[in-house]
Amino acid sequence: MVEAKTEVIYQRPESFTDVHTHYCPGCTHGVAHRLVAEVIDEMGLREKTIGVAPVGCSVFAYNYFEMDFVEAAHGRAPAMATGIKRVLPDNTVFTYQGDGDLASIGIAEIMHAAGRGENLTVIFINNAIYGMTGGQMAPTTLPGMKTTSSPYGRDVELAGYPLKMAELLAQMEGSGYIVRRSLHDASNIRKAKKAIRLAFEAQERGLGFSMVELLSSCPTNWSMSAQEALGFVEEKMLPVYPLGDYKVTPALQELRV
Amino acid sequence: MAKELLKGNEAFAEAAIRAGVEAFFGYPITPSTEFLEHMARRMPKLGRAFVQAESEVAAINMVYGAACTGKRVMTASSSPGVSLMMEGISYIAGTEVPAVIVNVMRGGPGLGNIAPSQGDYYQMIKGGGHGDYFPIVLAPATVQEAVDYISLAFDLAEKYLSIVHVVVDGNMGQMMEPAELPPMREISDEIPEWAVRGAKDRDPNILTSIYIDPEDEEITNLRLLRRWKEVEKNEVRFQEYQMDNPEILVIGFGTAGRVASSAVRDARAEGIPVGLLRPITLAPFPEGRLEELCDQVQRILVVEMNSGMMLDDVQKIVKGKVPVEFYGRLGGVTPLPDEILDEIRRVSKNEGEISGDPRDEWMDRLEKMRTGDQ
Amino acid sequence: MEETSIIISGFGGQGTLFAGQVLAYAAMDNGYEVTWIPSYGPEMRGGTAHCTVIISETLIGSPLVRYPDIVLALNLPSVDKYEPLMPENGVLIANSSLVNREFERQEIRTLLLPANQIAEDIGMSRLANMVMTGSMVKMEPILTMEMIKAALEEHIPERHRETLSMNYKALERGYAFAEKELG
Cβ contact (<8 Å) for C41 and B261? Predict the structure, then answer.
């Protein structure tokens, strides 16, 4: 009898629960979740990590992570995370927020968490739309983009311009690591994972506030197929939201992971 | 320990520190600011957390986060600030984690003023935030009592996994009065089983106020109600004064109750048989005691620094068995003992039934008094 | 004395709140119940900074009164405000350096003393509050000079400690003025 030699090359991260998510087919939340879980596994942080879920499509994020989690009020995740981190400075604390949560109702909380240099990691999902409430205009909706609350396309004269959170947060002295990545293809996903790793490394090293903005797709509310939606990210979102490292504190620049 | 002459706000803050508070998050607002300033001086030196948040909204959500770790945590603010906190307060209640909130009340609505008021009675006692929940509300009337009750507030919050509001008004925040502070309590290293501290050697803890299935939310609401019934049974506190066969019962809380006690003393000196019931827990209200007293007194006078908010609760309990009259000052005006003494004298001569809302006659009397003043 | 209410009232910066605190400390240190409450809320009207001190042998109810037993009025608006409210036999002391009128009430106990001028003679104009306090001790000795001096020594802010002897002198000069005026 010949023994089959098997090798595990891909499996569910320990930080991930074994359940189906509630996300729509083609949504990039699943990818983002997985990257976070893989990084937490690789860094061995699971048992000391506390996640803060937002209000929005990822309101149930805590169901998918095998770790302690709390659920914040809309936009208040950075404040809640501040409260946790200040009394448990040795734990790892991260928030997972969408664009309505972080850039609209919670913009005061995110700016001040960065301003204070809170030693937190923020995963920011920017898909240019409100998902959970059914496709309304977000602060990051592109000029001219149609949503249920900008049915004729976002008119910048009336509804203003998209907020560029990575650029804004990079201005804060308390920020240690602020970058924008995209989830529209495999190579960008690999880069996104590396950025998430560096963001958590920044926190573990006490280098201040870290945020990874992830350009993401919302096929359902954009009324597109999954593939078309990824194309929209590449063709329409990238020009408005250039990928890049907006702030990398010197101590992190030398780090190789 | 010897008594010290302490400013209310500073005494309250120090009492919380002695009770083992591990984190304070707040935002400056008159007339509670000295509370935050005292925390800013003391907490970092003790290696405890202090953050001046960007807003009351952020402050209460920091409280929420820290409360989820099972550590003692609090904030202090004043009326408009507490309004802003109502979102987080509801979330904390829904998540069933303990937190203590001190409200040094001032005149309103709106920007109002910085003068002492009891106008937040409804907001504090009846919930204030959205949804079905029942905060415990303590209303001390002296600096010493507040010092003692802030310590109790943490114990109650933890025992019942509840919001505990400590309500005082600007007078109490600003005044100085001798008080004895408790010794420094050691910080408990006990970790509640529900706390989030990292899922090491156990299943993850999830703390949330979301119950997307209405049946689950109903179960949660019922659990909160059952817990509240326990609070009602066990935690009623009040103080009585001059209760030797009173025919007239004055009811007032906080500063109004305290000022009324001077008027009651002076009225007794004139031979008027009057006593004072001062609720210390506004929620749960001393309902049983008031029911008993209805069989003993002929008339009740409710005194408040608002438009008669506790009056509504008193009438609900008295159920018309005894005529209830009202005297209030509004908008940040503190009633003085002579005003209440005049009211007690008037009530002692008044024998008829009160027709309709006792506020109607009071408004007329107050208008007359005010025009007479000027 | 069963319970005595004192209001110290003047312009902001005249040390009215501190003078009240000194009385409160002296009362507490000697076993009395006491409350001190600063001008606050609606009573801020009229441009005066004042505090109410109640000293009592029994637990204090109201920390506020309408009809104070003793008033130290460091400026004219304070005299205008409190003179009509003084009870019979009440004590009203006014700072004649800033009050250019006589009292209207005859049946209360009054004293006009040039507190600013006396303080300037000592060499520290901001001690008018202590001059006033000293005269009060003569007119209504609910607390003794020794009690007040001991409270000052115990509780004067460190940054002002070098002025302690000047404070004592101000208290004594106020006392002496009242003694001379009233016999």
Answer: no
